[in-house]
Amino acid sequence: MAMTNEHEAVNAVTVLDGDARDFFALLKPRVMSLVVFTAFVGLLLAPGEIHPVLGFIAILSIAVGAGASGALNMWYDADIDILMTRTAKRPVPAGRISADTALAFGLVLSVFSVAVLGLMVNWLSAGLLAFTIFFYAVVYTIWLKRSTPQNIVIGGAAGAFPPIIGWACVTNSISIESIVLFSIIFLWTPAHFWALALFKSGDYGRAGVPMLPNVAGERATKHQIVLYAVLTAISGVVPSLMGFAGVVYGVFAAALGAGFIWYSVRVWQMPDGDEKMVPAKKLFAYSLVYLFLIFTALAVDGLVSKFMGAAV
User: Fold this and answer.
1) Could you tell me the pTM of the whole model?
2) Which spans are transmembrane here (predicted)?
3) Given this model, what pLDDT does residue 15 score?
4) Do both 311 and 182 map to the same domain?
């Protein structure tokens, strides 16, 4: 009942003073930056070429689509965002933008991004972008997030689609290589978010979100973190094993994966009920570095390969 009242209160707010910064915040710019980066790497690694102008339009459309997903997520989650310290200051729960405005903003950006990508680049990539927005806003936000502790495992697919979209922008196809890029992010997501959920379990508990630590307990969560860290480390070296990334990349990815596993084991060794949660916070921070460096290394490897191929 309390949660319903909060939701009604948020939706009842009439906002007159939302500024450009508030609308930018609706786009979840930190998440958007990750989406843009991984989509760009997918576009860069794809065989063939795309005109630089069309490439820019493709990345911009993907960025706008990611922002649309963020706005729709904030519209629906305003009632629980207001209950969590990490999200209470977002524009909708803070009352700077109304929920109706956030919904309209998200829908307009969704249609715009998909239409531009389809008309200017190709309709396969546009369809994938539309599906990604739908998956994040409806399948994850509206359905999975509040109904199952596996929410982030299944819902993580939304964040893993950008490199496939970037690849499709160039090739107008989906390949095993782009699926491997998808799998790296997909397998990375649970360990990343469950590390956060360990030291923010109080927030999720107040909001009634069934994150794994709140439902299955810390010990089960730690086991799952180690499992997904191992799977992530393995997936990170697959591009080298498949031949679409070089040996140097493979060694670098293996070292990064070993670090991921090491930090996850430190979390597993952490005593249950540890209030400081230092190992979990370190794993969360390292996981961000890991994903950034893995995709940076893929981008560098791809650029070197294309340069050497052009030289030959």
Assistant:
1) 0.91
2) 31-48, 54-76, 97-117, 123-144, 151-174, 180-199, 220-238, 244-263, 283-304
3) 44
4) yes
